[in-house]
Amino acid sequence: MIIAVLLCSVVVSLSAFGQNAKPSVRISCPLLQSHPLKIVRPIYPGLARQAHIEGRVSLSCIIRTDGTVDKIEVKSGHPLLIQAATEAVYKWKFKPTVLNGKAVEMETVVNIDFQLPKRHSEAKPSA
Questions:
Q1: Domain span at 40
Q2: 14 in any annotated domain
Q3: pTM for this entry
Q4: Contact at 8 Å (CB) between 76 and 102?
Q5: pLDDT tens for residues 7-20?
Q6: Does some domain include residue 125?
Q7: Angle at CA 38, nearest 5°, toward 87 and 71?
Q8: Number of structural domains found in the chain
Q9: E strands, the chain, in order
Q10: d(C-alpha 6, C-alpha 31), whole Å
Q11: Domain at 78, CATH number
C-alpha cells in the first residue's frame, strides 16, 4: 500500500478566476489506468509517408471528468507526425476515472506508433 501511495501523485489546483473557484483534483498514477472508450486512428501524413518516416509520438494528456481530452502536451515524436497524432487523440473519449464516488481529472500518456506497411520483395524466377 505504501508503494502505491508513493507512485501516485495528486495535484490540487485552484482557479484564479472568480471568488467561487472550486478546487479540482487531477490524478496522475501509473496504477490507475485510463480506459479509452473511443479511439480515432490518425491519418498518416502524406509528406511523412513520402519521406518514409516512422516512429512513436508520445503525448501527455489531461482527461476531463467527462472523459474528453482537455489538453495535450507533446513529450516526443517526429515533427511530421505530431499534428496527426494530436488531432486524432483530441477526438478520443475515455471512461471517466472515479475516486470516492466522484469523477476526477486524469493525466495519462498516449503513445501513437506510425508504421508504414512493409513491402514483401518476392523473388521472381529467372528464365
A1: 26-114
A2: no
A3: 0.69
A4: no
A5: 333 333 322 333 34
A6: no
A7: 40
A8: 1
A9: 9-13, 24-28, 35-38, 55-63, 69-76, 93-95, 97-99, 102-114
A10: 11
A11: 3.30.2420.10
